[in-house]
Amino acid sequence: MKEKAIAKEKVCGRPRLRNLMPGITCPGCHYGIIIRLLCEVIDEMGIEDNIIGLAGVGCSYAWPMTFDIDFGSCPHGRAPAMATAIKRIHPESVVFTVQGDGDLGAIGLGCFMNALLRGEKLTTIFLNNAGYGMTGGQMAPTTLPGMRTTTTPYGRDPKTTGYPLHAAELVATMKSVAYSARCTVHTPANYQRAKRATKMAFKKQIDGIGYGFVEFLSACPSVWGLSPVESLQFIEEKMLAEFPLGEFKNVDSID
Q1: Cα 31 to chain center, whole Å?
Q2: pLDDT tens across 66-113, in order?
């Protein structure tokens, strides 16, 4: 019975670093699952006393309140700049950003790319739900071709609105990057793969090698107009076809 109770607590219990507070996400949103994953990773790596998180604007705005670690909010798109300042003042700290597709890929793209060009030793958790979840469901840099949003009611047409941003592949081309991967948490197996990728991204920073980047494909039933279960199928059939999972870069040194 004791073993069963321990197993149940590990699978269903609240992670040690997860603050007890009301839910901040819509039903079926994967942000809560990703929060749990990060809490577990930070706890298992034993870095909770030496880690600093920075959240972007959007549905991740309230993340600082959900973690029992040092965590701050940033102006829209400026998390990499604030992370750069903190890392340079406290080089011994593990510094990471959490940013949505609009915060990183639209208004904050220049700030993010310049952090990569400077070779900052940071970690970024990129949340890709293919739309602007907080501001009304408009087209985002990651919106799929043909996908209907409030600003593309007939479906995104690449001829007029371009193609989706493939962040993990783009980041992997940058010399300063030590690790780049794309993950999802829509199945238990993928959850475990995502944990391993996140640990690797943090380790690249801890070892002083270079930038670590992990992109998460995240369900957004509210914007997609689907049920939570239908959203899992949408990830499997649509999102993965456009955004393949895997590691795109993993190096142990940067010349």
Answers
A1: 9
A2: 999 999 999 999 999 999 999 999 999 999 999 999 999 999 999 999
Distance separating alpha carbons of residues 108 and 226, to the nearest angstrom: 28
Which SS3 state, helix, strand or coil, does residue 146 take?
A: coil
Contact 204, 179 (CB under 8 A): yes
Distance CA 125, CA 128 (A): 10
What residues have CB less than 8 Å from 187, skipping those under 6 apart? none
If you count DSSP H runs as helices and E runs as strands, how many of each does the chain have, helices first? 12, 7
Measured at the CA of 168, the angle between CA 208 and CA 189, to 5 degrees, comes to: 90
Instruction: Say which residue the tokens 């959007």 belong to.
Output: 58
Domain boundaries, the chain: 25-250
Residue reference for tokens 């009611």: 153
Beta bridge partners of 53: 71, 96
Tell me, yes or no, if the pTM score tops 0.85.
yes
- The CATH superfamily label for domain 25-250 reads Thiamin diphosphate (ThDP)-binding fold, Pyr/PP domains (3.40.50.970)
Q: What are phi and psi of 224, to 5 degrees?
A: -75, -15
Query: DSSP character for 105?
Result: I
- CA dist 124 and 102 (Å) reads 14
